[in-house]
Structure formats: structure tokens, C-alpha cells
Amino acid sequence: MPRTLRRVPGERLPRRGTAARRRAGLRGRAAATLCLLFFSLAAAARAQSTVATPQELREALARAQPGACIRLAPGDYAGGVFAANVRGAPGKPIVLCAEDPQRPPVFRGGATGLHLSGVEHVELHDLSFAECSANGLNIDDGGEASSPAHHVVLRNLKVARIGDRGNEDGIKLSGVTDFRVEACAIDRWGSGGGSGIDLVGCHRGVIEGCTFACGEGAAGGANGVQAKGGSSDVAIRRNRFEHAGARGVNIGGSTGRPYFRPPLAEPPHAEARDITVEGNTFIGCDAPVAFVGVDGAVVRFNTIYVPGKWALRILQETTDPGFVPCRKGEFTDNIVVFHSAHWAEGGVNVGPNTEPASFVFAQNVWYCEDAPARSRPTLPARETDGVYGADPRFLDPEKGDLRLKPGSPARAAGAGALQ
């Protein structure tokens, strides 16, 4: 006979099936946890994919969702890859990167190695581009002037041997906002107007820790970095320019009216505003810095070594109605070391239709390496607290080491002094 529990007064008897129900509940929760883990792992697997051909890459970009990471296997990828509307989300960028950063994939040949249009929250890491006839990498707004590409990060890219003697760029950004270009190496691009990095109508960006080189003797119309087409609020910081064309950094330029971003409305217009060039090292270049149709820009704490003709240029290439004359530039706290045989017009070239008197010069160190007594430049405005004829004492300039020796009289200026 079944045993009968006798109830003691005040005591609660256990309910039948309580332990069984508890065990069943635990099993249910465990099953739910396993299901959640399974689906999480499956989602992670879908978010991360590896591709090995241009077609696989196109397909992966077409289906990429916020948070996706597309890894490229080592090897060559035929240039000409195009993708539009690749859109991540805040905190969930779509990342395109090398599977093995020690063996980066190479977009080789074609007109443009990789062209991304209308993208948002996208990052590219550890990729290479070589031997393209037009641009190595092109990112733009797809022609939608009111809808820029935005939140783009380019990190540790290598770009080499792009174009020939025309207007061909290593990296071209058009209509891009909120961007960063970090630790990239750009080596040789079109000498007939091309740029290592060309910014057209770009805003709120940083180019930092990159190297630009065209080879000694490179000139033509090449620029290391160019920011034009209404570009604004861009910092070009702690980069190295070695014989990077005629103009190391071209602040401003000449842009067709339809290509300004945002589109031109009421004047005054300018090719560029609020551009900062700081903490960079320049070796060679006809002019390490050119202000071209600028309405306010700052060049400070840079080290300039043996430019080809000038330390800087002040120019106006766009003279249409409504455009301001090049004005309100600042050139301060720089070290400029030059040779008298490669020093034209006292170191500053001023073109017509500009306002050179609106420029500010202050606290620069000027040194003519072969004739210290000829170190004072010819400036279009009076300089405040300039230093002339004092050897900055670089560690090993012949080998490109432009750090300063202890006790240098130029220690408060130049790239190493940027805080």
C-alpha cells in the first residue's frame, strides 16, 4: 500500500511532482541556452566570411550586413571590383581585411582596383593596390551630393605604381565625411595632376601616420595629399612625404563647379576651409605646402628639409565669381632647412588674385644649410619671433633622420614638437 504522509500540525507537506517539475524546468532552460548559443555561433559564422576571388568578394559585399567581417585570402585579385551601398551601422562597421596581414591580398591592374560607392560605416584594413591605370582605391557618394559616404576607416593599406603621367590617384575620396586614413603607404601615382590621396568635397577627416613617396626627381603636377572641392575640417597629421611630387600637400586646388560637396549655393565660395597640416616631415617636393584658393588653413609644427624651390606657395586657380581670394593662412612653428641653389623667390611663391597680407607667420626656424647668413626668407607678411640662421642639428639628415639632437635651438618647433 502507498505510504501515507502524516501531517504534523503547522507543517506543510511537499506537493507531489515538485522535484520533477523543477528538473523539467532546468532541462528546458538548458535547451534554450544551447539553442541561443547555436544561433549566436551561426550568426557569427555568417558575419565572418573568407573569400579568395573577385567574384566571391562581390557576392560577400552584396550580402554584407552590419557587423560583417570579410577576410580576403592571400593572392592577387584582378582590379575592377565595384560595390555600392555597402552599409554598416554605428558600432557595427562592415570590415574588409586581409585574412593574413603578413601576406596582404593585392588588387592588381584594371582601371581602379576597388571602387566603393555610397558606403556607410565601412573599414578597410591590411590591403594592397598595385598597377591600376586610374586609381588604386576609389570611394565616393555615388553622385548623390546630398548623401555623402560616411564613417570610413582606411588602415594599413599599401598603394603602389598607380597610373602614369596623368591625373591618377593612389586613393581618391569624393563626397566622403567622417573618415580616417591611418598608417597607409602610397608609393608612386600619376605625375600629371594625380595625388597620393585626393579629397574632393570631403569633410571631418584625418590623415595620420601615412607615408608618401614618388621618388627623387618626381615633379609634374603630382601632390602627396590634395583637399579641394569645398573640403573642410580635415587634419593632415604626422605623415612623411619623401619627394612626393610638386606639392607635398595641396590645400585647395581647382575643381569644376558640379563636383563641389556640398553643392555651391550662396557665396562666398572656397576650394578648402579649416584644413590643418601639422607634425609632418617633408623631404624634397618643389613646394612642401601650397595654399590654393583657401579660406583659412593652418600649417604648423612641420619639419621641411631641402625643398626643390619654395617652402610654400600662395595661389588662386579658381577665379569664378563668388570665390574668395586665397587668404587667412597660418604658417607657424615649422623648421625649414634649405639649400641656396634650390631656393626661389626667397622661399615663398605668391600668385595673382590672392591676399598674402592676410597670412600669419610666426615662430618658424629658417636655416640655409650651405649659407647660414642667407637664412632669412622673403615673406609676404611680417613674421613674429622667427629664428634665422640657427642650425636645428638633425640627427642624420643624409639618411633621412630628421629628429633633433639634444640641445637643439629648434626644439620648440618642427614635427617633434607637436603635442
Low-confidence stretches: 1-9, 33-45
Measured as a percent range, the helix fraction is under 10%
Q: Report the sheet-strand fraction.
A: 35-45%
Based on CA atoms alone, the radius of gyration comes out at 29 Å
- State the secondary-structure class: mainly beta
What is the global morphology?
globular
**Briefly, what CATH class of the domain at 134-417?**
Mainly Beta
Discrete helix count: 2
| CATH 4th-level superfamily of the domain at 134-417 | Single-stranded right-handed beta-helix, Pectin lyase-like
Spatial separation of the terminal alpha carbons: 90 Å
Secondary structure blueprint with pairings:
Blueprint: H1 18-47, E1 48-51, H2 54-63, E2 69-72, E3 76-78, E4 81-84, E5 94-98, E6 106-108, E7 112-117, E8 120-125, E9 128-130, E10 135-140, E11 149-155, E12 158-160, E13 169-174, E14 176-182, E15 185-187, E16 195-200, E17 203-208, E18 211-213, E19 223-228, E20 231-237, E21 240-242, E22 247-252, E23 272-278, E24 281-283, E25 287-292, E26 295-300, E27 303-305, E28 312-315, E29 327-332, E30 335-338, E31 348-350, E32 360-362, E33 365-368, E34 383-384, E35 387-388, E36 394-396, E37 401-404
Parallel strand pairs: 1-2, 2-5, 3-6, 4-7, 5-8, 6-9, 7-10, 8-11, 9-12, 10-13, 11-14, 12-15, 13-16, 14-17, 15-18, 16-19, 17-20, 18-21, 19-22, 20-23, 21-24, 22-25, 23-26, 24-27, 25-28, 26-29, 27-30, 28-31, 29-32, 30-33, 32-34, 33-35
Antiparallel strand pairs: 36-37
Concise overview:
The protein is mainly β and 419 residues long. It is 10% helix and 40% strand.
